[in-house]
Amino acid sequence: MNFKLSEEHSMIQQAAREFAHELKAGVIERDEKALFPHEFVKKMADLGFMGLMIPEAYGGAGLDTLAYVLVLEEIAKIDASTAVILSAHNSLVLWGLNEYGNEEQKQKYLRPLAAGEKLGAFALSEPEAGSDASSQHTTAEDKGDHYLVNGTKNWITNGGNADIYLVIAQTDASAGHRGINVLIVEKDTPGFTIGPKENKLGIRSSDTHSLMFSDAKVPKENRIGEDGFGFKFAMKTLDGGRIGIAAQALGIAAGAYDLARAYSQERKTFGKPISNHQAIQFKLADMEVEIEAARLLTYKAAWTKDQGLPYGKEAAMAKLHTSEVAMKHTIEAIQIHGGYGYVKEYHVERLMRDAKITQIYEGTSEIQRLVIAREILK
Ligand code: CAA
Ligand code: FAD
């Protein structure tokens, strides 16, 4: 067992750290005005981050899941919105296309996505199908050489800015989850419209939209995998996606901790830095321990995936624990800042608002417990 990062991993971590530093100047304004970070998405493309785990043969960087986690962690320390844009694109769109797409689909869609010329979105959730993901109401009616898609998707990350959408829909209701398909849908498809942007508590510069389909014609060749593979595709995709959200939550927690630790050594009360008060020291000690434990779970989930071993339980454990640590310790980081923590310029209030979503999307904490319990009891 070796806990030391390789030279290559350290280099990618450093590159992500330098990039994240650039995110800091405008992060408060982007959060306040809910501005999508277009210029930084372009920069992430230039750095190879938009196709991080995709083989070089398809224009990606050919790196592993641990490298991906290191990049997300560094970015989320500063800007969790930019981290989730990256995570949804890489984990939820590119991974599945690379794993299960055919050669034509890879050439046509994976290449421009991996180069960052196009942005991807993953559309599973619906107004009445969130945790209960197999109860799909969106339909993809089989019309021979194409599908006619009807219905509404909800809460789609990158929803307004994406070019390519992976849309999950029910083709054969009588077959239940085995009658669900996943289709590649291009933005300009007639009958496909994008709803207004959601006004959110956190990750405000990541855009979230509903998607509406009314007799949207999608060619049969845009189905990924065999007929009825869509639900398993979504579940397998989410196993990896949850590692990305664990990394995002880890970055949020670590970012808040870095700020709180530094502040505690500057701020003086009763004639000494607040870090000299035992009550503050104990908070910092708990942060150090619990964030490191979350980091180990997250890196282990990434390592397990990279080893080619089953990783669904490890991903759920990492996501569950790290998101709870992020929520708990961003609140503590505000406490350490006192009144200054409650205003925007000290960053920790934003990190707390951003932390909350990590307990909800890509499966709520309750759903992670369900996934873990099913694994340990089967
Ligand atoms: N890998 C492969 N197959 C899987 C699987 C996995 N991880 N999990 C389930 N399956 C298969 C099962 O084997 C079963 O297939 P068979 O019947 O052929 O054996 C089939 O899928 C149905 O499985 P379940 O009966 O376990 O399904 P369920 O209806 O009980 O649901 C669930 C299970 C885990 C609760 C699932 O619905 C779930 O993950 N819900 C949460 C949804 C979610 O995470 N949504 C996230 C949306 S994306 C997002 O949020 C993005 C973002 O924020 C950026
Ligand atoms: P519900 O499923 O209605 O859950 C409500 C509550 O009941 C939760 O506390 C839940 O844990 C609990 N609950 C439900 N079932 C059970 C159970 N069996 N046992 C115990 N407790 C249970 N989806 C996408 O497809 N693509 C995206 O890109 C995407 N991005 C998102 C971005 C944001 C900002 C948000 C808010 C959501 C996003 N989602 C996305 C949707 C997200 O995955 C769902 O919101 C999430 O899965 C929960 O579904 P729900 O909101 O319908 O809640």
Description:
This protein has 378 residues and is of the alpha+beta class. The protein has three domains: 7-119, Acyl-CoA dehydrogenase/oxidase, N-terminal domain (Butyryl-Coa Dehydrogenase, subunit A, domain 1, Orthogonal Bundle); 121-230, Butyryl-CoA Dehydrogenase, subunit A, domain 2 (Beta Barrel), CATH 2.40.110.10; 235-377, Butyryl-CoA Dehydrogenase, subunit A, domain 3. 52% of the residues lie in helices and 15% in strands. The protein has eleven helices and nine strands. The strands form three sheets. The protein has a four-stranded antiparallel sheet with strand order 2-3-7-6, covered by helices on one side. Strand 2 (139-142) and strand 3 form a beta hairpin. Helix 1 runs parallel beside helix 4, helix 5 packs antiparallel against helix 7 and helix 8 runs antiparallel to helix 9 (312-337). It is globular. 52% of the residues are buried. The mean pLDDT is 98. The site of acetoacetyl-coenzyme A has 24 residues, from helix 5, helix 7 and helix 11. Flavin-adenine dinucleotide is lined by residues 88, 122-125, 130-131, 155-157, 200, 208, 357, 360-364, 366-367, 370.
How would you describe this structure in keywords?
binds flavin-adenine dinucleotide, binds acetoacetyl-coenzyme A, 378 residues, Butyryl-CoA Dehydrogenase, subunit A, domain 3, single chain, alpha+beta, 4-stranded antiparallel β-sheet
